[in-house]
Amino acid sequence: MKIIHYEDIEAKHFDNEAAKAISGRVLIGKADGADHFCMRLFEFSPGGFSPKHAHPWEHEIFFHAGQGEVLSQGTWTPVKAGCAIFVPPGTEHQIRNTGQGRLIMICLVPPAAPEL
Q: Are the beta carbons of 90 and 57 closer than 8 angstroms?
């Protein structure tokens, strides 16, 4: 069993044209013996955004804190703490922080996906 606070895990930072002002952490992954999924946590600073992308696997996202928007099928939909979304395989999507504080989300992906 693994029990750890997410801030004790080293973050990988993304800040370029495709992804701005994001840090990501693998909370539970292959190194922990998780063979069926990977749990990741992403923090978006105000104004931060993920790349617009699609991939062949589904994933699930839970927003823990903050407020933002999710792009799906050309439409931006507001999200806030407590919202959960399902991204089907092949669906183009993007996430951006529209609030004044951090947007924090948990993302679950299958083992075929890169952990970060």
A: no
Single-letter amino acid code for the residue at 98: T
Cα angle for residues 49, 65, 42 (degrees, 5° grid) = 45
Tell me the torsion sign for CA atoms 36, 51, 47, 67.
negative
What total of structural domains would you count in the chain? 1
Provide the domain limits for residue 38: 12-109
Q: pTM of the predicted model, to two decimals?
A: 0.95
Residue 37 lies in a domain: yes
Phi, then psi, of 88 in degrees rounded to 5? -65, 160
Q: DSSP code of 50? A: P
Which residue type, as a one-letter code, is found at position 63? Answer: F
φ and ψ of 30, to 5 deg: -60, -40
Query: Residue 15: its pLDDT value, please?
Result: 97
